[in-house]
Amino acid sequence: MSDLFPVRLEAARATRRGRTLVGPVDLELDGAGTTVVIGPNGAGKTTFLRMLHGTARLGGGRIRWNCTTEEARHHQCFVFQQPVMLRRTVMQNLIYPLRMRGMSRGEAEDRARRWAARVGLGSMLTRQAPVLSGGERQKLALARAMITEPKLLFLDEPCASLDGRAMREIEEILQEARAGGMRLILSTHDMGQARRLADEVLFLLHGWLHDRGAGPEFFTQPATPQARAFLNGDIVE
Amino acid sequence: MVDIWSGLVQAAWLVGTLDAELLEIALRSLKVTLSALIIASLIALPLAALLAVRRFRFRRTVIAVLNALMGLPPVVVGLVVYVLLSRSGPLGVLGLLFTPTAMVIAQVVIIVPLIASIAHQSIRDLWQEYHDLLISMNVTQGQKIRTLLWDSRRALLTAALAGFGRGIGEVGAIMIVGGNIDHATRVLTTAIALETGKGNFALALALGFVLIALAIAVNLAIHALSRTEREGRW
């Protein structure tokens, strides 16, 4: 069990310019497995992840980690839907978070080489990151997030606009990380991916947590008609 | 046309013969402007990054004022620095008036807003790109600023070169605070003004061509050193 968990959301609301985007959400998440957040466009999946991560403004309620918020932030990483590449080489992107945490250059580079090899970028260490392909960029973003060995990794639609092969490679890395004890919370539009990865599913609609269930059961027996309609591919209003 | 031609010939002659007086003036010009550029960059670049990263009250006003100060009239700057450094002024005890240091101070005041404004535009764009990543990585304010400065270094070089261009071609302020004293504070621009006043158009033009050549040479040297045009590099 990770030190961060359980995390409790108590009437947590994410707001922007006085408007509530997500919540209020009451929820408790424990420290194992993969939680997949699904829902139609505009349901608040990204904002929900950001709220939990602490980068979206909490307009009300509270989020209580099993440690201080500072410690919790230190042990989390976030992979964005559109990977942000530092205008540096692949190697420099990989060592960046380690160097910011005070690791020596030599040690950071050793670890970067291992991670680059693990995600299939071992031969691209001297390439400029912004000129990589979409799949390579996402793999680099993933490796850069995981290189600090976070206890919790957020992924916002990590495979959006990637082809099947790149998606499979990324899912393999995620499964490996999960098996290694890393807690994953990811949003996706891809129901196939949700079925493959989810130990637990959260269904969001209009910023509300509409349904929640264990992976396999949720997909066979969703509790709410909206979740059922969404899984059937109907338009959910 | 004749003046331009004879100016070119005289410029070639002065450079070709390594004219001692020309060398002295040109070196002083470079020394004053490069000193001002280094000091101004040390002030302006972190300031630009701070304005991009930090949210505080009146931030927009500070940015607007900084942009407005880009058009600061050099003569007014010269006058203010003169008053500050004159014997009866608050900094008169330092005895800096009519010295190259006074010229450096005036140039710093003139080019800091220019470098800071241009740098701020570039850093702000990069900050928009990096914002979510750096926030999610939980890096400190100082680390954010260092990252932004490093990753936008080539754009910042352009800002610094714009400052250099403004500084090396400046005449009004440094004439007032430097006094155009021979072998002490005479630089290329003040020498050009002097020779023009004396009617020595050819010599004035020659000095002008040397000034232009110097500015281009420094720009090319800095670009070459920083390898700005290397393929696929930022």
Automatic annotation (TrEMBL), chain A:
<dbReference type="InterPro" id="IPR017871">
    <property type="entry name" value="ABC_transporter-like_CS"/>
</dbReference>
<dbReference type="GO" id="GO:0005524">
    <property type="term" value="F:ATP binding"/>
</dbReference>
<keyword id="KW-0067">ATP-binding</keyword>
<protein>
    <submittedName>
        <fullName>Phosphate ABC transporter ATP-binding protein, PhoT family (TC 3.A.1.7.1)</fullName>
    </submittedName>
</protein>
<dbReference type="InterPro" id="IPR050093">
    <property type="entry name" value="ABC_SmlMolc_Importer"/>
</dbReference>
<keyword id="KW-0547">Nucleotide-binding</keyword>
<dbReference type="InterPro" id="IPR027417">
    <property type="entry name" value="P-loop_NTPase"/>
</dbReference>
<dbReference type="GO" id="GO:0016887">
    <property type="term" value="F:ATP hydrolysis activity"/>
</dbReference>
<dbReference type="Pfam" id="PF00005">
    <property type="entry name" value="ABC_tran"/>
</dbReference>
<keyword id="KW-0813">Transport</keyword>
<feature type="domain" description="ABC transporter">
    <location>
        <begin position="7"/>
        <end position="231"/>
    </location>
</feature>
<dbReference type="InterPro" id="IPR003593">
    <property type="entry name" value="AAA+_ATPase"/>
</dbReference>
<dbReference type="InterPro" id="IPR003439">
    <property type="entry name" value="ABC_transporter-like_ATP-bd"/>
</dbReference>
